[in-house]
Amino acid sequence: MAKKCHICGKGPMVGNSISHAHNLNKRRWMPNLKKLRIVEKGSVKRAYVCTRCIRSGKVEKAL
Asked: 29 partner at 20 to 30 Å CA-CA among 2, 10, 38, 48?
């Protein structure tokens, strides 16, 4: 599965999980992606789009 939003390019972010004893473990935060049929340049295609782009109306859904 693609790990990037087709519209805004949002991808995984990296950082540390921190335990109570302040032990650090590397981890990844994944974007909340959904597979949608979208209209792009007059044609319909399937793409992975983050939920923020869907909610804000940056993407036009195909019927």
From this structure: 38
